[in-house]
Amino acid sequence: MQRNLRKPDDNEPTTPKGAAKTNRGRHVHVALCALAYAASGALQPTLVDWLRSNGATGVAMLPMLANTLAVACVAPLRELLLSEKRSYIDRQQWSWVSYIKSWRLKGKLLRRVAFVAFLDFLANVLVMIGLLFVGAGVYAVLFSSGVAFAALFSTVNGKRYSLRQWCGVALATLGMALNGLASVEDALDAGHGALGRFELGAGVILGGTALHSLSLVCAESVSAGEELTSFRLATYVGGVEASVLLAHNVVLLLARGADKLYLKHILKHQGDPTTVFIVYVALWFADLCHALAHYALLAGAGAVALTLSRGVQMLFVVGIAELAFCGDDARACLTPVKFASVASVAFGILLYASKPKRPKRELLPAQ
Fold it and tell me: Is the dihedral of CA 128, 134, 137, 139 positive or negative?
């Protein structure tokens, strides 16, 4: 009698121990992606702040162009990294020509990808404009509040969350709101004009954050099927947005010239064009790391867990401010309110990620 021997699939846990090992590996992967997402996300607004203070931002929207170019590189870069793991035969059969041909979209999938690209582009425009109004600190706080929007939109889209997870979302959102109190007080102290500017920038960022969370939920829904991975979706979205911004810059260059469009503002702020270029390269690399972690988290953990990673980003911002700037600026120091916000965010994230303990089954006596 022949036995039906089937080779077990690599992703199929054959024992409870194997299943536990697979789950641990997945959790470690998600945790590393969340840390990379938070660290690069904390660096991005800091670099944009430096560029803004040196006159390297403006109507050309170069920070957003750097971000969209980085997002457009996600799938090709991942393909290059995966090519090193392929067998010799697979490498011989694979070609860039066939890879590019496989990118053609049709019908309903094309419309859904176009809708996600539109939402993401509009959200990024609003967030970038708001960032230029209020600066990196307020931006990081307000943009982190997208976890509440993502949870609401995901619920509308059909997902269900436990009471424990909703409490985690509420605590994380509350902590982010508490952390923003200092920024509101600073705006009040600076006068009515500054407060009006703050309100405008904050409102624009909140609107962009809501749209960004909606685009994440839509992107998770689009990439849930096997026909389109989240990394390919990233390149579609980034490619469309980068094309629009490149065309925008070409029109401005033809109308104003490079000196008036770029160099004039940099020199007016006593900036060095070479240093500005280097910082833009650093910003592009930070954007690339952020995008890779972003879409890996979207595929592995979903939109809500991805937005919760912005809470980890807030912890990075508060920690960096305490360690690096507290001596020069008292507003950067850790206050009781900031400590409460950090504790609330950290506990909220842990509460969302934790699983309720299952009751142990009673062992029946052997018969």
Answer: negative
Torsion sign (Cα): 21, 24, 26, 28: negative
**pLDDT greater than 80 at residue 310:** no
DSSP string, 272-333: -HHHHHHHHHHHHHHHHHHHHHHHHHHHHT-HHHHHHHHHHHHHHHHHHIIIIITTT-GGGS
pLDDT, one tens digit per residue, over 11-67 is 445 566 655 566 666 667 777 888 888 888 878 888 888 898 888 888 888 998 999
The half-sphere exposure of 17 on its side-chain side, counting CA atoms within 13 A, is 0
Nearest to 149 by CA among 178, 128, 119: 119
Q: Is 158 left (phi over 0), alpha (psi -120 to 50) or beta?
A: left
pLDDT of residue 15: 62
Cβ burial of 323 (10 Å; 0-12, 13-18, 19+) is exposed
pLDDT of residue 327: 74
Tell me the pLDDT band of 214, cut-offs 50, 70 and 90. very high
List, as own/partner pairs, every contact residues 197-201 make where C-beta atoms lie below 8 angstroms and the sequence separation is at least 24, other chains included. 197/133, 197/134, 198/133, 198/134, 198/138, 200/133, 201/129, 201/130, 201/131, 201/132, 201/133, 201/134, 201/138
CA angle 139, 301, 226 (to 5 degrees): 120
Amino acid at 132: L
φ, ψ (nearest 5 deg) of residue 118:
-65, -50
Q: Record the pTM.
A: 0.73
CB 295 within 8 A of CB 230: yes
Identify the CA nearest to 54 among candidates 335, 285, 263.
263
User: Would you call 282 exposed, middle or buried from its count of C-beta atoms within 10 A (0-12, 13-18, 19+)?
Assistant: middle
